[in-house]
Amino acid sequence: MKLRSRLFGLYVLFVGLYAVMLLIAPPPRIAMDRYNLTINQLHLLELTIIIPMAIIWFIAFYGYSKLRAYTDLIKDSKDGKQINRIATGVLILTIGTPFTTVASSIMTVISQDMPNFRPTSLIIRHYLDILVPLLAFILISGGARGLHDLTKHRPPQYVINAVAGIFIVIGVTYCWVILNAHNFNAAYFLPEWLVLTTIVIPYMYTWYLGMMSAYQVHAYSLKVPGIVYRRNWNLFAAGIAAIIVASIIYQYAATLTRQFSSLRLIPLLCIVYSLLALISVGYILVALGAKKLQKIEEV
């Protein structure tokens, strides 16, 4: 009960800070002129972002609480240590995601009054954005690999080849998109070699860890006894995969700002809401899998 109260308190804090930062931030005049928006219309649009984000964060906090409860129930089993590592990774992702969003909003507000701070704020935001998922998926991957090792099952060669091929394609195209972005200097304020080595490569490594974690949890689910356990671990694996896919799409979209800036407001909002929906699906699947696993152990 204490854990749930603390999580709920953190959740309320993050949502409140995020809402306040959006509302007090100076209105983006360029966007308002481009889409012919009034201040009231802009605030209504901001609400359509705040509400889905609040829902996603709530699902993430709820899912972690269920996963932690399940972990506490099986902590003495041979799987318990590995699942605890996964739960710790999910905790970092759960708290880190709203933390980086709120921190970015605060730095945006500060940059409006202190233009000289803008390059520093962008650099900090880029590294926060990669540090949180990287740490989270290092832990999730370690736990997933540990569960997979318990099955004594080697992944088929075609799986290894497929994952390697997919990430070669993603890596090459992502590097190309980054290096050919029209606003590269204004977006990063860093030399190309530093962006590639400290931002692009860590992102690709994080995505690789996430997709391998999803596969390893799926492989583990095929070996655990009981069809109900298998279904629930598959839900969890699918959730991790959806979160990674959403992260990949978001990073591509964030780089293609020039292309998106030419879109009308409705198509642009459809893209934003579709991405938020995909992220929410990932966290919903993780939460459902964790909740049902907890219920099984409590019976």
How is this structure best described in words?
- By secondary structure, the chain is mainly α.
- The protein has one domain (2-298).
- Helix content is 87%, strand content 0%.
- Helix 4 (80-113) runs antiparallel to helix 5 (118-150), helix 5 runs parallel beside helix 8 and helix 6 (157-179) runs antiparallel to helix 8 (192-223).
- The radius of gyration is 20 Å and the shape is globular.
- The model has no long low-confidence stretch (mean pLDDT 84).
| Count of discrete domains | 1
Contiguous low-pLDDT stretches (5 residues minimum) are none
Distance between the terminal alpha carbons, to the nearest Å?
19 Å
N-to-C order of helices and strands: HHHHHHHHHHH
Shape category: globular
Say how many strands there are.
0
Strand count, sense and barrel status of the largest sheet are: none
Strand content: under 5%
Q: Number of helical segments?
A: 11
Look at the helices and sheets and give the structural class.
Answer: mainly alpha
User: How much helix is in the residues?
Assistant: over 70%
Instruction: Report the average pLDDT across residues.
Output: 84
Radius of gyration: 20 Å
